[in-house]
C-alpha cells in the first residue's frame, strides 16, 4: 500500500490509535486522519508529548477524533487547559502496560526509516512505548528517508506491516537550550559528584545541557537514558562516554527516544553503538537498579521543606507529566553507588522561591519525599535520603535563595519542622 488514505481501512469505529512521542509522529498519516475525520467515529489517538499543536488535539473534530495524552507537550498544553484533552497520569515505564490494559490498542502509526537490505524498517529516533507493541498489534507506517536507521528493539519487518505510505518531510529539530549562569552553577555542583565510569540518565533542558558540557573530562561514562540528545552525542565524540564499564549493554548508548538537531539524526543513522529500547525496559526501576554507579539527573519545578518534588505542575497548573522521573529516582535507590539529583533554580524569573514550606496549592507530588535523594540549586546540594525532617528543612533552606532563607526558617519553626 502506498497511499496514506489506505490507513482509514484499518481504523474502525471506537479505535484506539497509538502514536510515538515527538519526532516519531507520522505527520502525513495524521494529516490524513484529520482530513477525513468525518469518516471516523469515536477514534482516540494515544500519545505522549506532542511537539506541534494539531486540529484534532484542539478538539476541532468533536467525538470523531480526539487526543489522549500521557505527558503534556507544547502541542497539547493549551488544549488541555481548554478542556479538549484527556491526561492520563503514568510513569513512563508503565505507559505501554496502561495502554494495553485500558485501550483496545487497535493500531500503531509511526514514522520510520526506509527498509534495510533485510526488509526491516526502523523507528529511528523512537522506541518509547510504541515499540513495545511490535508483533502484537498492526503497524501502519510512514516511510521517510530523513528518519535515521537505528537498531535495538525498534525495528519492524515489512511483512509485519498492515500498510505504509511515503513522505520526505524534514524531521522537527530541537536545538539544545543555551545554559544560563544559574544552570552552569547547578551543573558544576552535580558534575563534581559523578565518578568516572558512572552510568547516566540525563533529561533535556538548560541544566542538563550545562551538565553534559561539564563532563567532557570524565572517562568511560555510560548512557542509559530516556532522551538521547546532542549533548550526549558530543560527549561520545569527545571520548567521555564509552559505555565500557556498563553491566547491561556494555559499549552501547541506550535510550528510548531522541531529541535534537539534524547533526544528531545524521550521527544516529546506522550507528551500531546506539541501542533504542522501549521505555518499559529502559525505565524499569528493577533494570536501573542492576546498573552500578547509576546517576540520574532530572529537573523539578518546586520542592517543599520535607523534600516532596512537584515536577509536572507550575504554580499549581499542569504543565507536563510524571514521565520517567520517579522511575529513575526509584531505580538509583537500589543501584550500588547510585545517586539521584533533582535540579532547579532557587527562584523563578520573578524572584519567587521554588523552595517553600508547602507546595503551591494545586501542585502534585511527582517524586515522593521517601524517594528523593538530592535536591540541587545554584547554591548547593541538599541530601535527603536518610535525613530527618528537621535535617531536610535545614539543608533545603541552605540552598534556597538568600533573600528567602529567614522567612523559610520562620515558617519551618512555626510548622514544627525546626526547633
What would you say this structure looks like, in words?
This protein has 419 residues and is an alpha/beta fold. The strands form seven sheets. A seven-stranded parallel β-sheet has the order 4-3-2-1-5-7-10. Strand 3, helix 2 and strand 4 form a beta-alpha-beta unit.
Q: Keywords, please?
A:
seven-stranded parallel beta sheet, 23% helix, alpha/beta, 419 residues, six-stranded mixed beta sheet
* Tally of individual helices: 12
Rg over CA atoms, rounded to whole Å, is 22 Å
Biggest pleated-sheet summary: 7 strands, parallel
Amount of beta strand: 15-25%
Average pLDDT metric: 97
Stretches where pLDDT is under 50 for at least 5 consecutive residues are none
Structural class by sheet pairing and helices? alpha/beta
User: How many strands appear in the DSSP assignment?
Assistant: 25
Strand order of the largest sheet: 4-3-2-1-5-7-10
Shape: globular
Distance linking N and C termini: 72 Å
Offer a quick outline of the entry.
This protein is of the alpha/beta class. 23% of the residues lie in helices and 21% in strands.
What does the secondary structure layout of this molecule look like, with pairings?
Blueprint: E1 16-18, H1 27-35, E2 43-47, E3 65-69, H2 77-81, E4 85-87, H3 95-102, E5 107-112, E6 120-122, E7 139-143, E8 151-152, E9 155-157, E10 161-166, H4 181-191, E11 199-202, H5 206-213, E12 222-223, E13 227-228, H6 230-237, E14 253-255, E15 257-258, H7 262-268, E16 274-276, H8 279-282, H9 285-289, E17 294-299, E18 302-304, E19 309-310, E20 313-314, E21 317-318, H10 325-333, E22 339-343, E23 355-356, E24 374-377, E25 380-383, H11 389-398, H12 402-414
Parallel strand pairs: 1-2, 1-5, 2-3, 3-4, 5-7, 7-10, 8-16, 11-12, 11-17, 13-15, 14-16, 17-22, 18-23, 22-24
Antiparallel strand pairs: 6-9, 18-19, 20-21, 24-25
Helix pairs in contact: 4-5, 11-12
Amino acid at each position: 500500500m502506498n497511499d496514506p488514505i489506505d490507513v482509514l481501512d484499518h481504523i474502525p469505529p471506537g479505535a484506539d490509535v497509538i502514536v510515538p512521542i515527538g519526532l516519531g509522529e507520522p505527520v502525513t498519516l495524521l494529516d490524513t486522519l484529520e482530513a477525513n475525520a468525518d469518516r471516523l467515529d469515536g477514534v482516540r489517538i494515544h500519545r505522549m508529548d506532542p511537539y506541534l499543536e494539531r486540529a484534532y488535539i484542539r478538539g476541532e473534530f468533536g467525538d470523531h477524533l480526539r487526543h489522549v495524552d500521557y505527558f503534556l507537550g507544547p502541542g497539547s498544553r493549551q488544549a488541555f487547559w481548554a478542556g479538549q484533552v484527556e491526561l492520563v497520569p503514568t510513569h513512563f515505564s508503565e505507559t505501554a502496560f496502561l495502554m494495553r490494559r485500558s485501550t483496545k490498542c487497535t493500531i500503531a502509526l509511526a514514522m520510520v526509516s526506509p527498509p534495510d537490505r533485510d526488509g526491516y524498517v526502523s523507528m529511528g529516533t523512537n522506541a518509547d512505548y510504541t515499540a513495545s507493541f511490535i508483533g502484537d498489534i498492526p503497524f501502519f507506517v510512514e516511510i521517510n528517508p530523513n528518519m535515521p536507521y537505528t537498531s535495538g528493539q525498534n525495528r519492524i519487518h515489512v511483512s509485519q506491516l498492515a500498510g505504509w505510505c511515503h513522505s520526505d518531510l524534514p524531521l522537527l529539530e530541537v536545538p539544545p537550550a543555551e545554559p544560563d549562569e544559574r544552570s552552569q552553577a547547578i551543573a558544576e555542583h552535580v558534575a563534581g559528584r559523578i565518578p568516572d565510569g558512572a552510568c547516566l540518565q540525563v533529561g533535556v533542558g538548560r541544566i542538563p545541557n550545562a551538565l553534559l558540557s561539564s563532563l567532557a573530562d570524565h572517562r568511560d561514562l555510560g548512557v542509559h537514558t530516556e532522551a538521547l540528545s546532542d549533548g550526549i552525542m558530543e560527549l561520545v565524540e569527545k571520548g567521555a562516554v564509552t559505555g565500557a564499564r556498563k553491566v547491561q549493554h556494555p559499549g552501547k548508548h541506550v535510550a528510548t527516544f531522541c531529541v535534537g538537531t539534524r547533526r544528531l539524526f545524521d550521527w544516529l543513522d546506522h550507528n551500531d553503538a546506539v541501542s533504542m529500547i522501549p521505555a518499559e525496559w529502559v525505565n524499569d526501576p528493577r533494570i536501573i537498579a542492576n546498573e552500578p554507579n547509576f546517576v540520574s539527573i532530572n529537573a523539578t519545578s518546586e520542592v517543599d521543606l520535607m523534600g516532596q518534588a512537584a515536577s509536572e505542575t507550575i504554580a499549581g497548573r499542569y504543565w507536563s507529566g510524571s514521565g520517567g522521573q520517579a522511575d529513575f529516582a526509584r531505580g538509583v535507590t537500589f543501584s550500588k553507588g547510585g545517586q539521584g539529583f533533582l535540579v532547579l533554580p532557587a527562584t523563578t524569573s520573578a524572584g519567587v522561591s521554588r523552595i517553600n514550606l508547602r507546595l503551591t496549592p494545586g501542585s502534585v507530588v511527582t517524586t515522593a519525599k521517601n524517594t528523593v535523594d538530592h535536591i540541587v540549586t545554584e547554591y548547593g546540594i541538599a541530601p535527603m535520603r536518610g535525613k530527618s525532617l528537621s535535617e531536610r528543612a535545614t539543608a533545603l533552606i541552605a540552598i534556597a535563595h538568600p533573600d528567602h532563607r529567614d522567612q523559610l526558617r520562620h515558617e519551618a519553626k512555626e510548622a514544627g519542622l525546626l526547633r
